[in-house]
């Protein structure tokens, strides 16, 4: 995620956009061929039917702390989806080329990469709720600021702040979900979590795509940031009661 946008931006400028997709496809194929013989077997821990799985989903969604994590994931990814989809178009409207866009993406992703290890260490020692809340606040502020910024240096700073927010939010949320979920349901909980992530990205790309057409980039980015801010408030409210860790 760090190298792809940066390298893609430079390749698009030097060899063309169509060739970038071809290079990406070849690299993905090579990774798949290498991964198949190296991935370990993972036998199922237990068997379950559809009815039991649906009941387990309902049980997880009725847990306020887990619901808080799922809503925070969806809300933050709405803002991130707007960044991923519309920041290149916004930057192009300001006169920046694909190489500039690649650097903006790389600033976000590199900050995200560098930040996750120390934040993960902090999440083992500090209250994870406030790490998530701080991350959502940084993310919301960064997304709102994007639409108000025209200088390239400031766009890079917004991307760095967004990377900090993503690292804080998703590192601590993953640890929280593992802590709050019984071991026999952790795969299911992670499935719901990932569904929330991609639901948020989808909403950010589609719903806000329609909105941006009407209200423009500054207001659209501001609205996406407010959604992330609202998810932060919901997260804090739902996690207001301390919950015991799930049995190991």
Description:
Helix 1 (3-15) runs antiparallel to helix 2 and helix 5 packs parallel to helix 7 (152-180). The protein has 2 domains: 1-40; 50-238, MFS general substrate transporter like domains (Growth Hormone, Chain: A, Up-down Bundle), CATH 1.20.1250.20. 82% of the residues lie in helices and 0% in strands. The two termini are 33 Å apart. It contains 8 helices and no strands. The radius of gyration is 19 Å and the shape is globular. The model is unreliable at 244-248 (pLDDT under 50). It has helices at 3-15, 17-38, 50-61, 64-93, 98-123, 128-146, 152-180, 186-238. By secondary structure, it is mainly α.
Short summary:
The chain has helices at residues 3-15, 17-38, 50-61, 64-93, 98-123, 128-146, 152-180, 186-238. The chain is an all-alpha fold and 248 residues long.
Share of residues in helices: over 70%
**CATH fold name of the largest domain:** Growth Hormone, Chain: A
Describe the biggest sheet? Answer: none
Class by SSE composition:
mainly alpha
What's the helix-strand series?
HHHHHHHH
Task: Quickly count the helices.
Answer: 8
CATH class of the largest domain: Mainly Alpha
What radius of gyration results from the CA coordinates?
Answer: 19 Å
The overall pLDDT, averaged over residues, is 86
- Number of beta strands: 0
Distance between the termini: 33 Å
Q: Can you tell me the number of structural domains?
A: 2
Name the CATH superfamily assignment of the largest domain.
MFS general substrate transporter like domains
